Amino acid sequence: MFIDHTNRRVLDVIEGRDKGLIVNYLRTHKGGVFGELQEVTCDMWDAYVNATLEVFGDKVKVTIDRFHVMKNFQEQLTEARREIQRGLGKEEAKELKGTRWLWQTNPENLSEEQRQQLAQLKERFPRLKQLVEQRESLRAIFEDTTIKDAASGTNRLQGWMEQAKTLGLKALDKFGKTLGNWLDKIANYFTWRSSNGRTEGFNHGLRAILWRAFGMVNFRHFRLRVLDRFGSPRKP
């Protein structure tokens, strides 16, 4: 799915996400709808990035969506938490049963009672406290509006990676490697603060079309329905 973030609309839907299909589509529309393209936001899928670079070169900035970065981190946070719990005794591990929600939820989304429970668990399990603090410090970097360019963002993220290494957790090391591999494109976020949040909203709309139709086997019909529903520019 191709999204026009400026006009808040779906530009098109193609039948697949392999590099060849994407390159063909971008080349076909390079002098038209993409004539003034400045930035592409996407998740960490090689085909999206490589296709964009092949067609547009360095004339277009590729930005990895920050929310996909945090989603990847949340997955590794779960594994890191399990890694810590495997080193605990039976009784200690029993205390943590059913607390996953507390460790993974942003503090502002917890009730006062839940925040108090989490605070007690942090005191009881300092390594888990460190793990959660790493997540919050990563969030804080993305939300820090004083970071205004990719170079500054890169420096802050590299500092975070060095600190995360000190915890000695394999899952965090794995995330650090992913972050390092995509660092330049993740750091591009700090220039214009673009994200794929709207894309996720349109994805929900596309799923609703499929749900109402009890599934669709004809891609052409599906594409036409998507463009009819979401293809017009939205009013500011």
Describe the protein in words.
- The chain has 236 residues and is mainly alpha-helical.
- The protein has two domains: 2-65 and 195-230, no CATH class; 66-183.
- The protein contains 13 helices and four strands.
- It has helices at residues 19-29, 46-56, 66-85, 90-95, 100-104, 112-124, 126-143, 150-165, 170-181, 183-187, 189-192, 197-212, 219-230; strands at 2-4, 9-12, 39-42, 61-64.
- Strand 1 (2-4) and strand 2 form a beta hairpin.
- It is globular and about 60 Å long.
- The mean pLDDT is 95.
Q: Within the largest sheet, what's the order of strands?
A: 1-2
- Gyration radius, rounded: 21 Å
- Helix-residue proportion: 55-70%
Mean pLDDT: 95
How widely separated are the two ends? 22 Å
Number of domains: 2
**Main sheet makeup:** 2 strands, antiparallel
Please give the number of β-strands: 4
In the predicted model, the low-confidence regions spanning at least 5 consecutive residues are none
The arrangement of helices and strands along the chain is EEHEHEHHHHHHHHHHH
What would the principal axes of the Cα set say about the shape? globular
Q: Please report the number of helical segments.
A: 13
- Quote the beta fraction: 5-15%
Task: Indicate the structural class.
Answer: mainly alpha
